[in-house]
Specification:
Elements (H helix, E strand, L loop, with lengths): L10 H47 L1 H8 L1 H4 L7 H40 L3 H65 L1
Helix pairs in contact: 1-4, 4-5
Length: about 190
């Protein structure tokens, strides 16, 4: 008794699986690249601000006193630039984790909103949604508003000082003009 066994390979199923995996991977790759680009931009901006702040507070003088300037004599970087590079790259490494946290928050808020819209457990989901939105708004208000109070006060003081100086100049110009006009009319 001989049994004839037919072996066949379903190539089309393998190709379909491969294309399916590619189709699932590409959006994730694009999302990762977008998060990385945004994180890179933000980390560079933070590094620039940090560079300005460190230079204003005199970090180079501190580096001279500590002897770091002698160590970096032949280098194209100074101590402040090295600190800013380390901060920038550290923030760039943290960016994917922050992107994951933001994604999880968006998914959680979306799920809460969907449950509330569907009328499922509204007595639980609505207070949670309102609390999350209020916490987010509070964080934004304190973080952005609180961080901008000092710089905004300084900006207003500069504007008011400039306005006072310009007003004094204008008064001087007007009085000089009037004196010259009176002299011209008297002749």
């Amino acid at each position: 008794m001989s049994h004839c066994v037919s072996l066949s390979v379903d190539f089309t199923q393998g190709l379909n699986d491969a294309w399916s995996k590619v189709a699932q991977f590409v959006p994730q790759l694009i999302g990762f690249l977008v998060v990385l680009a945004i994180g890179g931009f933000i980390s560079k901006m933070i590094a620039r601000v940090l560079d300005r702040v460190l230079r204003k507070v005199g970090s180079e003088k501190l580096a001279d006193r500590a002897g770091a300037s002698k160590l970096l004599e032949g280098s194209k970087y100074d101590m402040t630039a090295i600190i800013c590079k380390v901060v920038s790259y550290t923030l760039l490494l943290i960016t994917p984790q922050l992107g994951t946290i933001v994604w999880a928050c968006v998914v959680a808020l979306g799920a809460i909103a969907a449950l509330g819209r569907a009328g499922i457990a509204t007595s639980v989901t609505q207070p949670v949604l309102y609390a999350a939105l209020a916490a987010g708004a509070g964080i934004m208000i304190v973080g952005v508003g609180g961080g901008l109070i000092g710089p905004m006060r300084q900006r207003w003081e500069r504007w008011l000082d400039t306005a006072e100086k310009e007003t004094a100049k204008a008064r001087g110009s007007v009085s000089a003009y009037q004196a010259g006009r009176e002299d011209a009319l008297a002749k």
